[in-house]
Task: inverse folding
């Protein structure tokens, strides 16, 4: 039987975390390159780390949830949950009636995609 020591487990966890952060840095840099506001790798990494810290305040720790949170920060800004113009987002992410952070981020992500689609449709009508 194979037994993994605590040190090995920690090394694997750190490697997975580093890989995740590096993947997100690529995503952030791609986003800012597309918007013509390019970020250096260092700036993109700082952005990712700040977004992860903010996500943790909402008890978001799973990779899938962190990805959605980071994508939302790219669409609405790093502090979207504090923006008075985006109160609907705060209401969802801080919903005390839903104790599951994964459910809240999924609801918020779906609602934001719906609203973005509606905005695009409105722009086409103009």
Result:
């Amino acid at each position: 039987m194979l037994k993994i020591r605590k040190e090995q487990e920690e090394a694997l966890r750190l490697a997975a975390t580093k890989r995740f952060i590096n993947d997100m840095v690529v995503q952030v840099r791609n986003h800012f390159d597309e918007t013509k506001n390019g970020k250096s790798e260092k700036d993109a990494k700082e952005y990712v780390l700040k977004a992860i810290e903010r996500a943790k305040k909402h008890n978001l720790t799973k990779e899938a949830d962190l990805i959605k949170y980071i994508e939302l920060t790219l669409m609405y800004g790093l502090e979207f949950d504090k923006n008075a113009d985006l109160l609907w987002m705060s209401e969802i992410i801080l919903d005390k009636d839903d104790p599951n952070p994964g459910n809240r981020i999924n609801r918020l992500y779906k609602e934001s995609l719906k609203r973005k689609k509606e905005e695009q449709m409105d722009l086409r009508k103009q």
Remarks:
- Residues 21 and 49 are 8 Å apart (CA to CA).
